Amino acid sequence: MFRFIVRRLLQMVVTFFGATFVVYALMFAYVDDPYQALAGDRPLTDTQRAALDARFHLDDGFFQQYWHYVTGLLTGDLGETTTGRSIGDLLAEAWPVTIRLALLAIVIAAIIAVGAGVLSGIRRGGVFDTVTLVLTLLVLAMPIVVLAPLAQLVFGIQLGWFPPTAGRDAGLYELLLPAVVLGSLVIATELRVTRTSVAENLRADYVRTARAKGLAPKRVIGVHVLRNSLIPVVTLIGVDIGVLMSGAIVTEGVFNIPGVGFNLFRGIRAEDGPLVVGFVSVLVIVFLVINLVVDLLYAALDPRIRYE
Amino acid sequence: MPGKSPWKVAAASAVIALLAAGCSGTDSDDTEVVPNSISIGIAEPSSLIPSNSIESSGSQVLASLFYPLVRFDPTNKPYLVAAQSITHDKTNRVWTVRLKPGFTFSNGEPVVADNYLDAWNYGAYGPNGQLASYFFSRIDGFADLQSKDPDDDGPEKAPEPRAKKLRGLKKINNLTFTVTLSEAFAGWQSVMGYDAFYPLPKAAFSGDGVLNKEFAEAPIGNGPFKMKGTWQHDEKITVEKVADFKGTIPKVNGITWKIYQELSAQYADLNAGNLDIETKIPIENLASASGDLGDRLGRTDSSAFSFVGFPMYLDKYKDPNIRRALSMAINRDEMTDQVFLGSEKPATSFVSPAIEGARSNSCGQWCEYNPTRAKQLYTAANGPKDIKIAYNVDGGHKAWIDAMCNQIKVSLAINCTGSGLPKLGDVVSRARAGEDIGLIRLGWTMDYPLMESYLGPLYTSDGSSNYYGYKNSTFDSLVRQGSAATSTKQAEQLWNEAENQLVRDMPVIPLRFGQNVFGWSERVTDVTMDLFQKVDIYTVDIAS
């Protein structure tokens, strides 16, 4: 197990630098004039340009700029946005609220998906199963750009059950609606995978054996079926973090939550290269860590993987 | 027991999530808010340093923190606010500003002439890279504060400018200073009403000409409100009334500038009663806004101006009849009604008629929709059979460009296509290089309420935003004479004559003038907005 973790950690370092290099190169190719994006419809004078170039090294070549970025990164300095804010501070402000939102979304999605999925799987073909299948189809067909404003309009404004926007210090209640919207992105797939997986395992030999031994149905499902059925679901939940982060770009905008997606979107719109790269670097780390956690969970769920 | 571990993990993560989500209080907002205060939605300002603020969100907040030398009445004439008197010599070159005594910054520092001189010198000094520095360019000695990269494009560093202070600024005594312009300009008093001309306290500077880094997070102004805490980025800026303020006293006790990324989120909050004023109703909500808000929906003129410029450097548009015909082929009313849902007004002049002295229909017949006449003119002048309209795709212009092209197609029976370029910078640089990119989509908002703020930058030969290459020496000299005129009446006359020259030449097609379309909650009354797209913070009141 220990060697497994060390090997994974070493792989993470390589992946991190590879991924950030690619992102940096892409951003470098995309950004051509962030100052103009700042100044709107009015052209900047040469003096202003020169002053800003000196500050952000934007007239240097690609490798020089990348060098500035990597040395800054290794010393913990992520640089400044084109409006002069420290990206480190921005990250520190944005992450907590996004993590809260994402965790809440995952928990809501997982509880609903696993619960309903297991029920559907056991009573395959029944009324409950059919209804959930139709509902998940609906949710799958609805893109988040439609779902988020719709939920805001119906539950936030017309029914008034939830506040229509959340903000940075949002508590559980304010975050509930955005989290449900965000979670709905992954509920459908998670539910369907759980259902299929449960249905498959119900037919497996070891379940038949367990039943034949005369074990209580509760124990058969709770221990024998569920444990094996959860392996694909756990992988999926890990991968879904990525879906949630991209969904957060829309959701955070709609519900005015100044988190990671909100900042990323702004950075892309303002051609703020350093801002985007800074946030993406942390996103890469999050992905890597989550993947590690998923792999470890695998090991917990399936002893055969543990001793590899 | 390995068999139990997945459940433990799941349960633990659920607990962590709920704790994380629930750990911060939800009621902290209510306790912080000043009683009798209102909230106004803005976007995240790019800066709160007056000389670095060129967008409306920053400008809004600054208007509550600072007290300008002059403000503008409903007809956009300047009147004195922080200034006791503003006088000028016969040539309009040397302007003397006397400050009202007794004013202080919110930290207790008295407001003196030096505060203005320091702030303006800081704003004008090239290496500080202030976005609004061009406002100081009329002051004598501005060029000496700038420096140019010797080889035009790195790696050699630009040398230090020749001077650190503007030669044209002179302190006379504690409350008086003079401004010498490099060229006579009758409208200088109006220019000084802009944000870049606010004073900065001594506390703003850590050394001579060096601004404190913390100052930008919590600016100290000479205005009716002061910051409560610091700027909470992406969330809010709270200001509260300054006790015994000497100037005009606003009616509300405080303002929370709530920061939003999306206008539609603001609109949702406005409807749910969580926000008091939204300064711009998003276009997708305009159709339902009058139903949602009823008489709490307001419309006033803004200074925004949308137009399309002809590439005057190309021969195919040389004949003015071609330009007139294209202008007459466009149905402006239909465009503002259908595409903009009445949030903009059709433009039939080259200068916003909301400006003192400007006329509303100077363009006359050339800006009227008349497809038959347009077609006759166009065929007689043998105009190009295929035209393009270049625009930047990041600005949401596609819908109306396409609509306009369709109108041209139908009216003139020629082909018209919108050609999208990624950024405004691409459009401008290709026009400057003399490329045939077709007609050019452009927009403008004024810097100060004077006709010159449109005529000078947009149409003069060396105008900073004249990308389409219009050159007419008669026009240039009329604008210049107007600027140097001794009375505003005379200036306006000359500027109107200059505009007549534009009508004869039609270097651009005027399309639309902007409007502030804003909404407010039931909590507030007397909400008005000015040409600068700012809420008047002095008149707004809490509904009784």
UniProtKB/TrEMBL annotation, chain A:
Residue intervals of the ABC transmembrane type-1 domain: 95-298
Residue stretches spanning the membrane: 12-31, 99-119, 131-155, 175-193, 229-255, 275-301
Keyword Transcription: no
GO cellular component terms, semicolon-separated: plasma membrane
Keyword Transport: yes
Alphabetical keyword list: Cell membrane, Membrane, Transmembrane, Transmembrane helix, Transport
Any one GO biological process: transmembrane transport
Topology of the protein relative to the lipid bilayer: Multi-pass membrane protein
Domain of life according to the entry: Bacteria
InterPro entries, per database record: BPD_transp_1_N, MetI-like, MetI-like_sf
Localization per record: Cell membrane
Sequence similarity: Belongs to the binding-protein-dependent transport system permease family.
Protein name: Oligopeptide transport system permease protein
From TrEMBL, chain B:
Domain Solute-binding protein family intervals: 81-465
GO cellular component term of the entry, any: periplasmic space
CDD domains linked: PBP2_NikA_DppA_OppA_like (cd00995)
InterPro entries: Peptide/Ni-bd (IPR030678), SBP_5 (IPR039424), SBP_5_dom (IPR000914)
GO biological-process terms attached to the record: peptide transport
Superkingdom to which the source organism belongs: Bacteria
Single Gene Ontology MF annotation: peptide transmembrane transporter activity
Transmembrane segments: none
PANTHER family named among the record's database cross-references: ABC TRANSPORTER SUBSTRATE-BINDING PROTEIN (PTHR30290:SF83), PERIPLASMIC BINDING COMPONENT OF ABC TRANSPORTER (PTHR30290)
Protein name: Oligopeptide transport system substrate-binding protein
